[in-house]
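Researcher: I'd like a candidate sequence for this fold, 374 residues long. If you have to choose between options at a position, lean toward the conservative one.
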């Protein structure tokens, strides 16, 4: 059966929200959809749709594949790259995923498309469309620091209890959600590490972004406007943590992390969304930033710190951070590079920032009394 694919429109928000609920994906408000469409982008990037849908016989969106587009700098000049997210196809239009993925890969102005958070069921589907495991030798790996082992044992027991129930029975009681998840600020910083707030996102971030670009790396846009946009997500229940490694008054490295809670029976996790440094200070700045984050995790009510996308270079730089565990699973990282652009990837120090991380995670839901007070 041939499925007609069209770009996402704002009026699809209700239908897509129904699909998210059906698939047990995190809810996104209408304001959240508008925020996702307003990422700072060049005119070339804005010309690319933010995703595609397939309609059922009643004209309702019954399949969706989101596309997050970012501007990149490279040795060849400005480029546009994309990452796919939220691939959902309802059984009433079974088979439509192929048309949705093709629509994204057929965008001629994208140098490449990644899916860095694929689940074990979807990964083979992407590979049938020519997407390959990426990064080449670490696509199955994540790095984890356990910061609250007792809560993690309780989490494992709660998951085991859930597994004994009908798979279609969704848990309703929120577990492992202390108030400090929403209240605690970062402490235990070092002399060179500073926690940044939205008001700190100024010319120093722009200078850092320009210095990274001058090194010739393939790099997604990381100027002050891009970080301010990430802080503005209306569906997030607390601000992300943004740590800067400072060389005097200059930024030498950045770490962006968010508190997430995958399901009602999962403990909060600090997910590292970005971890990037200038070449001359990366060897000591990268482990210093992660060490500061790990020291704060338990105070934030988080049972683990996780870096979900890892290169060999990052793995080596973080080996000195106490408590690091390597976790291997399915092929969660995949990429498709447009023919003729393959040499670009030699300059690509991939981080979760290049993918859908920070866009599609479930934030810890605020307790009802705190929500009403807010």
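Model: Candidate sequence:
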């Amino acid at each position: 059966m041939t499925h007609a694919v069209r770009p996402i429109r704002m009026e699809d928000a209700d239908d897509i929200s129904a699909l998210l609920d059906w698939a047990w994906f995190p809810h996104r408000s209408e304001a959240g959809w508008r925020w996702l469409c307003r990422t700072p982008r060049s005119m070339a990037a804005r010309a690319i749709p933010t995703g595609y849908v397939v309609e059922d016989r009643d004209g309702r969106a019954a399949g969706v594949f989101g596309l997050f587009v970012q501007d990149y700098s490279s040795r060849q000049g400005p480029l546009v790259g994309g990452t796919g997210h939220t691939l959902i196809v309802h059984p009433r239009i079974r088979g439509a995923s192929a048309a949705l993925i093709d629509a994204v890969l057929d965008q001629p102005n994208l140098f490449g498309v990644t899916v860095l958070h694929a689940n074990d069921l979807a990964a083979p589907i992407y590979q049938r469309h020519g997407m390959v495991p990426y990064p080449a030798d670490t696509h199955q790996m994540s790095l984890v620091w356990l910061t609250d082992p007792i809560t993690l044992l309780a989490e494992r027991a709660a998951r085991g209890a859930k597994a004994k129930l009908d798979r279609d029975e969704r848990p309703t009681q929120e577990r492992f959600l202390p108030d400090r998840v929403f209240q605690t600020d970062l402490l235990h910083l070092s002399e060179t590490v500073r926690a940044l707030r939205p008001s700190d996102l100024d010319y120093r971030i722009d200078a850092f972004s320009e210095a990274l670009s001058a090194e010739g790396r393939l790099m997604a846009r990381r100027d002050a406007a891009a970080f301010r946009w990430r802080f503005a997500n209306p569906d997030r229940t607390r601000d992300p943590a943004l740590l800067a490694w400072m060389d005097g008054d200059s930024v030498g490295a950045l770490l962006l992390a968010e508190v997430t809670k995958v399901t009602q029976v999962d403990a909060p996790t600090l997910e590292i969304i970005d971890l990037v440094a200038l070449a001359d200070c990366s060897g000591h700045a990268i482990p210093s930033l992660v060490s500061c984050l790990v020291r704060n995790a338990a105070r934030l009510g988080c049972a683990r710190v996780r870096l979900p996308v890892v290169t060999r270079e990052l793995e080596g730089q973080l080996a000195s951070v106490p408590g690091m565990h390597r976790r291997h699973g399915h092929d969660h990282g995949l990429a498709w590079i447009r023919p003729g652009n393959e040499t670009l990837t030699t300059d690509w120090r991939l981080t979760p920032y290049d993918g859908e991380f920070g866009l599609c995670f479930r934030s810890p839901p605020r307790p009802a009394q705190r929500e009403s007070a807010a």
